[in-house]
Design goal:
By secondary structure, the chain is an all-alpha fold. The protein has helices at about 25-30, 45-75, 80-100. It is flat and about 100 Å long.
Length: about 100
């Protein structure tokens, strides 16, 4: 007499009861519809393409200039910032001294 195998040996087609993940669903076996073709951008001639490129460069230049104008306003020089912090800490110490 032959002993039974230590692991399951399938003898026929896989059923849902044996392994639900292995049974293909109808949606997986059906042919998938193809994605509709994306409309292409209109082809520009070289002059129009050059104009667009120059316009983009101008816009970027303006953005860069406005950003550079705002940069000094947003950031204080480090020395002035440290001086302001020391002044504030000195005033705080004076107030503590007056309260006690």
């Amino acid at each position: 007499m032959v002993p039974p195998p230590l692991y399951y040996v399938p003898t026929g087609p896989i059923t849902h009861a044996q392994n639900p993940a292995a049974v293909p669903r109808p949606s997986q076996t059906a042919a998938q519809p193809l994605m509709p073709a994306q409309p292409r951008a209109p082809v520009l001639n070289e002059q129009e393409a050059e104009k667009k490129k120059e316009k983009r460069i101008e816009i970027n230049k303006k953005r860069r200039e406005s950003r550079d104008k705002l940069a000094p306003i947003q950031k204080k020089p480090k020395a002035a910032e440290e001086k302001e912090i020391s002044n504030l800490s000195e005033r705080l110490n004076n107030l503590k001294f007056l309260n006690y």
